[in-house]
Prior knowledge:
- The chain has nine helices and seven strands, in the order E-H-E-H-H-E-E-H-H-E-E-H-H-H-E-H.
- By secondary structure, the protein is α/β, with parallel strands linked by helices.
- It folds into two domains: about 1-30 and about 110-195, Rossmann fold; about 35-100.
- The strands form two sheets. Strands 2-5-1-6-7 form a five-stranded parallel sheet, sandwiched between helices.
- The two termini are about 20 Å apart.
- The mean pLDDT is about 90.
Amino acid sequence: MTRPTIIGLTGSIGMGKSTVADMFERAGIPVFDADAEVRAMQGPQGELIPAIEEAFPGSTGPDGVDRDALGKLVFGDTEALARLEAIVHPAVAAKRAQFLKDNAETTMLVFDIPLLFERGGHDAVDTVVVVSAPPEIQRERVLARPDMTEQKFEHILSLQVPDADKRKRADHVIDTGTTLEETEAQVRALIAALRRKRGQR
């Protein structure tokens, strides 16, 4: 049996990756959302709560991880961030493996992974789709978020592979600096092209 084509979907903060992931889902393509899985595992009664509380005392409560408290403990501290990632990343990998198993009979699926290049995940996908927009649009979107500051934005950017480099390394680029309709048309055209590549209509 031919396995699904695995699409690695990525993009820097504020580029519209989640919006594009929704467009893939609406087109009938299963999407594994790494961030959503992390939120669930860190939410109320989440399976990662005990390990995170043990590593970072006081960072969890009845509602799960206190994102502000945990953020203060790891923000700018590479060693602390590495400890957190050592808890989270293996759990996400296990969820992703189960998703792949559950969707083994589909023709294609999407791994929505924000840090695809940063963590070397691009080697585990068949084609890389980068979501991109002009820097001024990115900045406007990000700074409109609650509790976002210029300092936080710049720090997040410093941890990410630059957008220009992502676009160079991408197999396909989806431009979100346009209307939603035009972006969705790009997504549908890409799905059609990937199906043709597999010899499907």
